Amino acid sequence: MSDRIDQIKNPRRIVVKIGTNVLIDDSGQLDLELIENLVSDIASVHQQGIEVVIVTSGAIAFGANMLGIDMENQDVRSKQALAAVGQSRLMHAYEQIFETHNIVVAQALISRSDITDREGYLNVRNTLVTLMDFNTVPIINENDVVALEEIGVKVFGDNDNLSSMVSNLIDADLLILLSDIDGLHTMDPHRHPDAELVLEVDTIDESIEAMAGISHSSRSKGGMQAKLDAIKLATASGIAVVLVNGRNPSVVSAVLAGKNVGTFFKS
């Protein structure tokens, strides 16, 4: 049995991180058809008895589109305001679509400071575990309205690091990072069309780090390097990670079936 199948089989609890560029189409609108398909896939996993926590991006980009504002050159205060506009609409979309599958969702806005002290760590953990005990799907986003780590000068990483922290917090068996690329490539696929997809990574060493390019989107803040940093955090905690294209049909189910989609990072 392969390492991928061995580490992924029969998970009890997973975290699915959904990147901005998965949710937002080229015009900056929520891609509702894609979200419906993705939610349907996650709902089928949940209905198999697997606990699912979602870490979602997209609030700032959606708020910018709602107001007709170019988000690329906005200051911190403006991005916090855009998050306030976009977050409720993003959550409303999730709520409506999950409701068609008879699944209740719960919103949790978390800042890094909420889980860096012991009391906050335990409070957040207890709340998320209780929500899963209630058979809901918690949907988490960085609290951009008050947090500076993700949208300020110091980049937090487009919720990549947050998803790793949450995975560790709730003792997840697997973290699935949904992006708009197929996984880690030998070179930056935006610049090198002949770049090859890396199917499996044992350890993130200097040779793997060298494969990370730069972010090519003004809407997402992390890029491949931020994803690798988050993946190192998760795998160090014993959590396997799959980085995969969230625009592929039934992608979460394909990952859990052990198919060779995306890049699998051993724990």
Top keywords for this entry?
8 strands, alpha/beta, globular, 40% helix, 267 residues, eight-stranded mixed sheet, 15% strand, 10 helices
Summarize the structure.
The protein is of the alpha/beta class and 267 residues long.
Describe it for me?
- The chain has helices at 3-8, 20-23, 32-46, 59-67, 76-99, 118-133, 160-169, 206-209, 223-236, 251-256; strands at 13-18, 51-56, 105-110, 137-142, 174-179, 200-201, 240-245, 263-265.
- By secondary structure, it is an alpha/beta fold.
- Strands 3-4-2-1-5-7-8-6 form an eight-stranded mixed beta sheet, sandwiched between helices.
- The protein is built from ten helices and eight strands.
- It is globular and about 45 Å long.
- β3, α6 and β4 form a beta-alpha-beta unit.
- α3 (32-46) packs across α5 (76-99), α4 (59-67) crosses α5 and α7 (160-169) packs parallel to α9 (223-236).
Low-confidence runs: 150-157
Judged by helices, strands and strand pairing, the structural class is alpha/beta
Strand and helix order: HEHHEHHEHEHEEHHEHE
Strand content: 15-25%
Distance between the termini: 16 Å
Count of helical stretches: 10
Rg from C-alpha positions?
17 Å
Number of strands: 8
Mean residue pLDDT: 87
Query: Main β-sheet: number of strands, strand sense, barrel status?
Result: 8 strands, mixed
Percent range of helical residues: 40-55%
Question: If strands are numbered along the chain, what order do they take across the biggest sheet?
Answer: 3-4-2-1-5-7-8-6
Shape type: globular
